[in-house]
Amino acid sequence: MTNPTPSLPLFYRRPLLLRSQDHGRYGLRPGENFGFAAGAAAIPAVVGEFAIASSHYPIVFASDDGAMPMVVTGIETGRNLYVDGNGQWSAGQYIPGYVRRYPFIGISAEANAPNMLGIDLDSDRLSTDAAKDGAEPFFDREGAPTERAKAAITFCDAYAFEHERSRAFAQALLQHNLLAEKSAEVKYPDSGKAVVTGFRVVDEAVFRALPADVLVELHGKGWTDLIVLHLASQRCWVSLMEKSAQARAAAAA
Fold it and tell me: What is the pTM of this model?
């Protein structure tokens, strides 16, 4: 479910810290293609997008010690049901912030230092000669960041802030024993089936049995709202399973 990578974040293969003196000609090619996410059956999510993501995908929590939130985008490992063969995201579906951030990433040169702009060297959108490729440059002639680069680092900084909020939220859920291992079984019309495992959800009974002082604390931090949005998102399993059945039928046709 979690699409684990031993040492690098999901999707990133060769993150590079952009420096004007070394990468002054680099830029971003135009056009969006989400083919890099086609194999992700689950994608990291942050609490700031729960409100909108909960209407589109089941929100679950990882089974590891971090218990970070994710949106489920596929039933079978290695298949994102929302990315087609042309690398386009399904029309009308919310595109997770983690996906929209790519190929950029915030990189800190040292502990507690501000994030600087990084990019995945393996991204098809990276140009090493922006002028030649008609790409948006990251630096101007004086070596200062362009508006393209400024917008990217602003997005990365905002995502990093939400990531830390999400980490605190997940740890609170663990602290109060609110997360329970779950699985989802899909039965297809052709008698086939698939079982999704490796994720956790909030145990609603445990949540409702929390002491009043704990509820007040969680509510004060805005986390009870997030729990409710997470629970409401579980209804999206139905549409996800239907989409999986349609894809299976199309593949068999």
Answer: 0.92
